[in-house]
Structure formats: C-alpha cells, structure tokens
Amino acid sequence: PLAKSQLHGGAVTCSAFVGESLVATGGEDGTLRLWDARFGRPALVLNAYDAVKCVAHSGFQLLYGTAAGSIVAAPLAEGESPRTSDPFQTSSVQGTGDVSLAALCFLSDYDFVSVDDEGEIVRWSAS
Q1: What's this model's pTM, rounded to 2 decimal places?
Q2: Which end of the chain is less enclosed by CB atoms within 10 A, N or C?
Q3: In 3D, which of 8, 48, 67 has the Cα closest to residue 23?
Q4: Minimal CA–CA distance to 64: which of 37, 36, 39, 44?
C-alpha cells in the first residue's frame, strides 16, 4: 500500500471521491470524514450523530445518508472542492422514514436517487 490510516472508530460503510485529492468516508461511528488521499491524512471530520450508510458527491454538493433514513447535504463552493480549513454548513434535505438508507447516487448536479434497505428507490431534487 502507498498509505495506511485508521479511518474511523468502527466499520467504514461508504466512500466517495470529492474533487481531485479528497475522499469522503462514512462510518458506523457516526462521522463523515474527508481525507487528503495524497497523504492519507484527515482534512475534516463532521459529526453526523448517526451511522453514515452512504455518501455521494457531485460538483456542488456532498450528500450522506444515515441509518435513521435522513439525507443530509453538505454544500460545496461552486466548482471547487472544500478547503481543509472551511467548515461544512450542513442542512437536512429530507428524511425518508424509519428505514436505513443503502445508497445515494447523483443523476445531475442537483438531482439524485436514494435507495433504502427495503429496496425503495426515490428520485429527489436538491435545487
């Protein structure tokens, strides 16, 4: 391996590339973490207050889904990756109910789909 890091305090449940050199990971420990992939160092830790089950990135947003069924948006500056010193401004997009989210996938910069652990697929617009 080129680099090795202890990512989370429990199981890592999801990951996504964010820009050219950052990777977002979510875990059972209730955190979403941004990592500098070049050096394997954490750049930012966001407390999600629940197990993070899925994460997706488009050019403008980073979304994560929780075990409680919430979808949370962490907007990024237009056309830029987040800087390591910039805090996320999070806001809940919408909850899907009492089921855990299994996957998130962007269809465009603002439209995405969610899939829950019961197999329901929902199309959303974050614009």
Answers
A1: 0.77
A2: N
A3: 8
A4: 44
φ, ψ of residue 25 to 5 degrees: the values are -130, 145
Say which residue, 3 or 61, is predicted with more confidence. Answer: 61
Residue type, 20: E
**Rounded CA separation 60/110 (Å):** 8
Tell me the per-residue pLDDT of 98-112, one tens digit each, with 9 for 90 and over: 678 889 999 988 888
Summarised one tens digit per residue, pLDDT across range 15-70 is 999 888 888 999 999 888 888 888 877 788 888 888 999 999 987 788 888 888 88
E strands within the chain?
Answer: 12-18, 22-27, 31-36, 41-47, 52-57, 61-66, 70-75, 91-95, 101-106, 111-116, 121-125
Cross-sheet strand order for the sheet of 22-27: 12-18, 22-27, 31-36, 41-47
